[in-house]
């Protein structure tokens, strides 16, 4: 008995199936909620060489779903920590670490030497980028994606009639539909299920066992415990958008900016705040940040407090957020829009440091 | 009476009263989409693909009766 005996005794998998896994090179992009369970299962199953791409570090809020990591790993890079943990468990495997995010400069080189690619990333830009490279290289791509309590699994560039992500979604969605920009909730077990399904598809592709999920999208709904399959077919509208060469790919821009929150200038912000009862102007800088602005029209609630408890804002229809330069207020406005979709939430342009902010323009604070 | 079953996924379901509901039968998917947009204007800003009886469609598709329609947005999370 060896560590693979329970799968090599499967009649259709056998020693041959195991040898195929052992000879294989699989790249997992994203060592997060999806990537962790995928990596655990690919390594346990004995995939010989596993590449891990992630430019991020581990934070405490990752731990509900990123099951390779624990408290002791916070602050450390995901890709190298994942490789260390797996190498310690399975010294018979090889790991290749890419501690960066993929972009048009590095993606071709990183992806080229692998047999199968797993997409466990968390943004549309990288998903389209990986898809387009895998189409160029005709490389099987196992994509998984989640939204709150639901997930999708798809296998592209596989079999005699290969499909790709642009057959399903020809274009990246509009900016207002990019929920990961402001973090959305996810029950940690959901990516555990979807990432594990991805690992299963990789093992099927490599070993030849079973029927690969290559002509359908599989949806999973955790709340209903239900699966839903949708058959897909080639979509010329999407295929026209694919880069036709490596040069063409390198010249593309895959950055999809997170949607911008609505901005408002200082003049309008002050006018609204002073003349409309349902408007609230909030200084979201943290306690202790200078200069201290004490104005009656300015309500001070630090960003960290609002994130913990946005309820005090709920009495107002127009919420105007101010920080030092207008950056954090943008971020918070996006987050609050998720919580209060019916309210108007603005980021005040340029923040406190803007030339027309009350520091400069209102010398004598007449009304306040 | 013939009627459509509409199933909504992901963010699309948040713009609709329920994840799954019946809708009056329409001639084709374009007529259906226009009726859905009229009734649920928030859908207009959303990107999603459409499946008829679990087959993804790419253009206006005739409906004959009692189809199951799925509104399928892309998911980005990981």
Structure characterization notes:
The complex is a heterodimer of chains A (about 375) and B (about 80). Chain A has helices spanning about 5-10, 15-25, 35-45, 80-90, 105-110, 125-135, 165-170, 190-205, 235-240, 245-250, 265-275, 305-310, 325-340, 360; strands spanning about 25-30, 50-55, 95-100, 115-120, 140-145, 150-155, 215-220, 225-230, 260-265, 280-285, 300, 320, 345-350. Chain A is an alpha/beta fold and about 375 residues long. In chain A, α13 (about 325-340) links the parallel β12 and β13. In chain A, α3 runs parallel beside α8. Chain A starts with a helix and ends in a 7-residue tail after the last helix. The model of chain A is unreliable at about 360-368 (pLDDT under 50). Chain B is an alpha+beta fold and about 80 residues long. Chain B has a single domain, classed as Beta-grasp domain (Ubiquitin-like (UB roll)), CATH 3.10.20.30. Helices cover about 20% and strands about 30% of the residues of chain B. In chain B, a hairpin with a 2-residue loop joins β3 and β4 (about 55). The longest helix of chain B is centred in the middle third of the chain and has 11 residues, at about 30-40. The interface between A and B is medium-sized, with 45 and 21 residues.
């Amino acid at each position: 008995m060896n560590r693979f005996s329970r799968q090599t005794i499967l009649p259709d998998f056998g020693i041959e199936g195991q040898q195929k896994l052992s000879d294989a090179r699989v790249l997992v992009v994203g060592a997060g909620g999806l990537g962790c369970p995928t990596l655990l299962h690919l390594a346990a199953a004995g995939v010989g060489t596993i590449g891990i791409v992630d430019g991020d570090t581990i934070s405490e809020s990752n731990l509900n779903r990123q099951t390779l990591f624990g408290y002791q790993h916070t602050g450390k890079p995901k890709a190298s920590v994942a490789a260390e943990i797996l190498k310690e468990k399975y010294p018979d495997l090889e790991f290749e670490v890419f501690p960066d995010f993929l972009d048009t400069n590095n993606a071709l080189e990183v992806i080229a030497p692998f047999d199968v690619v797993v997409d466990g990333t968390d943004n549309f830009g990288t998903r389209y980028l990986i898809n387009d490279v895998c189409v160029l290289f005709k490389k099987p791509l196992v994509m998984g994606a989640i939204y709150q309590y639901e997930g999708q699994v798809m296998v592209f560039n596989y079999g005699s009639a290969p499909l790709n992500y642009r057959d399903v979604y020809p274009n990246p969605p509009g900016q207002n539909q990019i929920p990961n920009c402001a973090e959305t909730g996810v029950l940690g077990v959901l990516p555990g299920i979807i990432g594990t399904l991805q690992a299963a598809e990789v093992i099927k592709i490599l070993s030849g066992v079973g029927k690969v999920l290559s002509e359908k999208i599989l949806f999973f709904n955790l709340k209903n415990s239900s699966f839903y399959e949708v058959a897909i077919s080639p979509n010329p509208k999407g295929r026209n958008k694919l880069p036709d060469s490596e040069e063409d790919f390198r010249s593309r821009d895959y950055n999809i900016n997170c949607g911008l929150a609505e901005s408002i200038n200082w003049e309008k912000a002050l006018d609204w705040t002073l003349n409309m009862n349902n408007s609230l102007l909030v200084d979201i800088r943290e306690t202790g940040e200078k200069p201290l602005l004490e104005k009656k029209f300015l309500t001070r609630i630090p960003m960290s407090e609002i994130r913990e408890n946005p309820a005090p804002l709920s009495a107002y229809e127009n919420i105007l957020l101010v920080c030092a330069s207008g950056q954090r207020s943008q971020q918070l406005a996006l987050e609050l829009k998720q919580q209060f979709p019916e309210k108007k939430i603005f980021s005040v342009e340029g923040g406190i440091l803007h030339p027309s902010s009350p520091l400069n323009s209102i010398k004598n604070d007449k009304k306040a | 009476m013939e009627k459509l079953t509409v199933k909504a996924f992901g963010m699309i379901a948040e713009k609709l009263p329920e994840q799954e509901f019946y809708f009056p039968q329409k001639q084709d998917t374009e007529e259906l989409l226009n009726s859905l947009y009229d009734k649920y204007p928030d859908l207009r800003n959303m990107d999603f693909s459409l499946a008829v009886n679990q087959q993804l469609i790419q253009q206006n598709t005739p409906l004959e009766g009692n189809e199951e329609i799925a509104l399928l947005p892309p998911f980005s999370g990981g």
